[in-house]
Design brief:
The complex is a heterodimer of chains A (222) and B (253). By secondary structure, chain A is mainly alpha-helical. Helices cover 82% and strands 0% of the residues of chain A. Chain B is globular, with a radius of gyration of 18 Å. The chains are: A mainly alpha (222), B alpha/beta (253).
Chain lengths: 222, 253
């Protein structure tokens, strides 16, 4: 099993890395858009903006209550059967990641803003700062720092979630692994390599996120 | 010092409260408070817990909005519509029981924020002000520390410096030693005494009767949402006229 691992690795690593690059692309676009979506909805819910708050609640309930694979199928197969126009797999995949992570990000943002005590708002306002400046200088920076671990966690979850795109034949890491196995029947070696590449990506991401967290939350360590 | 204060008495009060009412739901906390705070005066408000003394203080800089009455500050009723509350708050400092420092900022950044973002001073000027005020409370060497690295007493002194950095007309102190360890109360009281001797106008809600007796020009006893008795500390503590005041004083002394 292991004797030809090195040879297979040398032979197929380039193809897998092309897939990994696609995985990184889908993740970064999907997570960025999802974060923006979550930021808007999370803030609206934290400040109880009418209508958006209720819509946001329904949105979070639907996304959290259904599997990502079903959401992906709904976008890729369900919507075109209704509208009659096909959606390219990559677009469907990125949309699914965006909509899915957006719901979780909105919960993280809402929780982080609401976790800052009201006495902090009072302290800011009592210095004569208006509402917006109090949020900008006092509340939001603290909320962001508190949210960092959860934000990083969701980032990593979304990266792994992109593997589901394989089922609608987006040629990311997992799909490329499947394709190579179909031609070579080296399931053990290839899945091992695929798993290792995921591990390297999430590991690097963890290290970066830890550094960011450390930099921002230095005030927490006495 | 007393003589200087007596001369100032002739001028208009810095803060004039008239018929202040405040309710939280069914709870009628303040039932018509009239109070004048004069320039350079140290006014100590005492009373049993739940009597409304903290609410009264929070009403003065509008952290709570009174339901009825007038607050005349610098000649204007600040409860009228159209008054810029932020502008008023830059002139009326408050220090809280729980310090409420900004934990993500260093000590000096805490003091600089108001002058920079509220008064619109340059960073250099804000830093100068902050350094001066930190030196004032004896904490200049902690300028670059974070609040979490300080003791309670030190944090409260930073909070005082933060408030003084705005150069307020008057400063409101809301039970600022109540959350402190006994061994650090002294350092905060000594800063308060310094401020008093410099002629800072202070409204102090406190349980520190020693401080009140020694430093206050006037003591106000509040119970049940009303001012029961007021006068110089010697009279309030040694010869209270009202029975409720007598009971309270006898319980705490």
């Amino acid at each position: 099993m292991f004797d030809d691992l090195l040879q297979i690795a040398i032979q197929y690593l380039p193809r897998l890395l092309v897939g990994a690059l696609q995985t990184i692309k889908i993740t970064s676009i999907g997570v960025s858009l999802g974060f923006l979506l979550g930021l808007v909805i999370g803030f609206c819910r934290a400040y109880k903006v009418p209508l958006v708050t209720q819509l946001g609640q329904v949105y979070v309930a639907i996304i959290r209550g259904t599997p990502l694979l079903v959401q992906l199928f709904f976008i890729f197969f369900g919507l075109p059967s209704l509208t009659g126009s096909a959606i390219p797999p990559l677009v469907a995949g990125i949309s699914a990641i965006t909509i899915n992570s957006g719901a979780y990000f909105s919960e993280i943002v809402r929780g982080a803003v609401q976790s800052i005590r009201k006495s902090q708002v009072e302290a800011g306002r009592s210095l004569g700062l208006g509402w917006f400046k109090t949020m900008r200088f006092v509340i939001w920076p603290q909320a962001f720092i508190n949210a960092l671990p959860s934000l990083g966690n969701q980032f990593i979850i979304s990266l792994k979630d992109t593997s589901l795109m394989a089922v609608i034949s987006v040629e990311e890491l997992t799909r490329n692994g499947q394709i190579i196995i179909a031609a070579t029947f080296r399931a053990f070696q290839i899945w091992l390599l695929v798993a290792l590449i995921y591990l390297v990506m999430t590991g690097l991401l963890s290290i970066i996120l830890n550094q960011v967290e450390k930099k921002f939350s230095r005030y927490m360590y006495a | 010092m007393i003589k200087k204060w007596c001369n100032e008495m002739d001028k208009d009060p810095v803060i004039k409260l008239r018929n202040i009412h405040k309710s939280f739901g069914d709870l009628h906390v303040l039932k018509g408070i009239d109070l004048d705070v004069h320039h350079g005066e140290v006014l100590v408000i005492i009373g049993p817990s739940g009597c409304g003394k903290s609410t009264l203080l929070r009403c003065i800089n509008l952290l709570e909005k009174p339901d009825d009455g007038k607050i005349i500050f610098e000649g204007k009723n600040i409860l009228e519509p159209g008054i810029d509350i932020n502008q008023v708050r830059t002139r009326l400092g408050i220090v809280f029981q729980g310090f409420n420092l900004f934990p993500h900022m260093t000590v000096i950044e805490n003091v600089m924020l108001g002058p920079k973002e509220s008064l619109g001073f340059s960073k250099e000027k804000a830093r100068n002000i902050a350094e001066k005020q930190l030196a004032h409370v004896g904490l200049i060497e902690k300028a670059d520390a974070f609040p979490v690295q300080l003791s309670g007493g030190q944090q409260q002194r930073v909070a005082i410096a933060r408030s003084l950095g705005m150069a307020p007309r008057a400063i409101l102190l809301d039970e600022i030693t109540s959350a402190l360890d006994p061994e650090t109360i002294g350092e905060v009281l000594s800063v308060m005494k310094d401020l008093a001797s410099e002629g800072t106008t202070m409204v102090v809600v406190s349980h520190e009767m020693g401080f009140a007796r020694e430093v206050a020009h006037r003591v106000v006893f509040i119970d049940g949402g009303l001012i029961v008795e007021e006068g110089p500390p010697q009279r309030i503590f040694d010869e209270p006229q009202n029975e409720r005041t007598r009971n309270f004083i006898s319980m705490i002394l």
